[in-house]
Each structure stands twice: as C-alpha cells, then as structure tokens.
Amino acid sequence: MYLNRFYKINSTFNYVSLHFRRFLGTQNVNRVALYFQRARLIDSIRLALRSSSSDNLVTYLENPSLDSFVVTKALQSAPSPESALNLIECLKK
C-alpha cells in the first residue's frame, strides 16, 4: 500500500524534473548554432588572454556554456604558454 504511493510520487517527481531540466538548461540549439556559440566563446577567451587584464577573462569563464571542449580549444589557441597558465590559474579559482 505504501509502496504503491511511493512509486506514484516517484514517477510524478521524475516526470516533473525531466521537464524542469529541459526548460532550465541552455537553449535548445542545433549543432551548427552550438558550433558557432562555442567558436565565439573560444575567440573571446583567446582575445581576453591577449589583454593584460584578467577581469575580462573571469567574465568569460563564468559563461554557462563553458565546457571541457571550449577550455581545451582555448588552451590550444592561447597566444603564449604564460597566458595558457593564466587561464588554468583562473579556472582553479
């Protein structure tokens, strides 16, 4: 009897959380739009690494679409090894 109630509550919770996650996440974009979004973010990080101010870099690192792919490509396109180390240090914070 109690187990049946638990399964109903659990299935309702799973249904609601599934739809809630769908609307909470980033926009539903296709692969081409995701590619261009990542490319813009990588380019912005690369340009911020060229400048001496780390404040610009922090704003880009707080972007919700930052993932391991973007970080890897940003490290590969860093203008110097020192700027790549600066990016790693900013990510550690």
From TrEMBL:
InterPro entries to which the protein is assigned, alphabetical: At5g66631-like (IPR044175)
Name of this protein: Putative ovule protein
Natural source organism: Solanum chacoense (Chaco potato)
